[in-house]
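Table S4 entry, Outer membrane protein beta-barrel domain-containing protein.
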Amino acid sequence: MFVGPSINYVFDVYNAKLKVRTDLGLAYIITSKLDLHIKYAIGFEEITPNGLTLDLGYKL
């Protein structure tokens, strides 16, 4: 389980913004080389929407 601040610099064709959010998440180790993460990001401003991320990791 993890909780903490997140600072992201997002650049696209139209603009670049610094976004500050709080991340809440869980990580589950499936095997010694495979893990699963789910994260919910809470934005502090209207320009930083909330989001849910699901990641699958593989260790080389």
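The beta strands are 2-11, 16-29, 34-43, 51-58.
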